[in-house]
Write a structure and sequence with these properties.
The chain is an alpha/beta fold and about 350 residues long. It contains eleven helices and 13 strands. Helices cover about 35% and strands about 20% of the residues. Helix 6 packs parallel to helix 8. Bound molecules: (4S)-2,6-dioxohexahydropyrimidine-4-carboxylic acid and zinc ion (ZN). The site of (4S)-2,6-dioxohexahydropyrimidine-4-carboxylic acid (DOR) has 10 residues, from loops.
Length: about 350
């Protein structure tokens, strides 16, 4: 059993970097571990134009040390009225790597999202034609649907029809949480893939209620029952090119999580690679780690693989309980736990 794991430099295909002081505080954690990251556009106001994305990209680079070679890959926040010409030209000019579909009301800062996929059919046809990937938060927003069923119902009601209407559209089903999603992606064509977070491989829904309400285990889509965690975890370590790394790191100040209405989101950026490595190790699948972290994502997106490598060592890593950041505190994923791998 090897104690040293050297892999091609990895990328994170789903990240919330926020803006302002929070951006300044958290950007470095992602940039330290990953060469590139897909940057979520759910700011206030959301990133809906190429001009806004370009300005946000500049703010991200300004938040990093001058010699950083990190590359933020920007995304557009789809709305009912998004300008398809700006979206397409932004993609053509390399400002937009992809566009994100938030069903309106599905999650944090999604109020301006799409109220009915029918409203963006023209935009999706355009994206399909130019090969621009669609990233999907796959949950229905109907309050009548049980929160633990919203991903499975989304597949049936929205995603299956969408893939029939746009058979060549590249789709990333983001942060999948169910066996249903795993099965859907496996059975779909090569143009459909999924990202998997470390937390959905590690926790099931019991973690949210263990001895009391645990706000730091709350994210959206919410963790599901054990059988789903096992299916998602098996997909991650399987070696299938359809599944790749996307942390969905989503920092919220500690006070905003530990509140009567706590925000959804898990801050896992500081030790993401160590968390994933521990998962692959526990599953006896370290041989598949490089594909998941560094190869499947760029191949799906049609981007070059990174040059260079990173090394993880088998050594105890204590995750702090709390990380003080400018004026506030963040609680990282697996706070207070000890992992078996450390990034050099
Ligand atoms: O838990 C989540 N947090 N899920 C999301 O979809 C959004 C994210 C956030 O922005 O905080
Ligand atoms: Zn997210």
């Amino acid at each position: 059993m090897s104690d040293i794991l050297t892999i091609r430099r990895p990328d994170d295909w789903h990240v919330h970097l926020r803006d302002g002081p929070m951006l300044d505080a958290v950007a470095v954690y992602t940039a330290r571990q990953f060469a590139r990251a897909i940057i979520m556009p759910n700011l206030i106001p959301p990133v809906t134009t190429s001009a806004a994305a370009s300005a946000y990209r500049d703010r991200i680079m300004a938040a990093l040390p001058e010699d950083s070679d990190f590359t933020p890959l920007m995304t557009a926040y789809l709305t009912d009225t998004i300008d398809a010409d700006d979206l397409a030209s932004g993609h053509d000019e390399g400002i937009f790597t992809a566009a994100k579909l938030y069903p309106a009301g599905a999650t944090t800062n999604s109020d301006s999202g799409v109220t009915d996929v029918a409203n963006i059919h023209g935009v999706l046809a355009r994206m399909e034609a130019i090969g621009m990937p669609l990233l999907i938060h796959g949950e229905v927003t109907d309050n009548e649907v049980d929160i633990f069923d919203r991903e499975a119902v989304f597949i049936e009601q929205i995603l299956e029809p969408l893939t029939r209407d746009f058979p060549a559209l590249k789709i990333v089903f983001e942060h999948i949480t169910t066996a249903d999603a795993v099965e859907f992606v496996k059975a779909a064509g090569a143009n459909i893939a999924a990202t998997i977070t470390p937390h959905h491989c590690v926790i099931n829904r019991n973690a949210i209620f263990e001895g009391g309400v645990r706000p730091h285990a709350y994210c959206l889509p919410v963790a599901k029952r054990e059988q789903h965690r096992l299916a998602v975890r098996a997909a991650a370590v399987s070696g299938s090119p359809k599944f790749f790394l996307g942390t969905d790191t989503a920092p919220h100040a500690r006070g905003d999580k530990e509140s009567s209405c706590g925000c959804a989101g898990i801050f896992n950026a500081p030790y993401a690679l160590e968390s994933y490595a521990a998962i692959f190790d526990a599953e006896g699948a370290l041989d598949n780690f490089e594909g998941f972290a560094s190869e499947h994502g760029p191949r799906f997106y049609g981007l070059p693989l990174n040059e260079g490598s990173i090394t993880l060592r088998r050594a105890a890593l204590e995750i702090p309980d709390i990380m003080p950041i400018e004026g506030t505190e963040l609680v990282p994923f697996q706070a207070g736990e000890t992992l078996g791998w450390t990034l050099d």
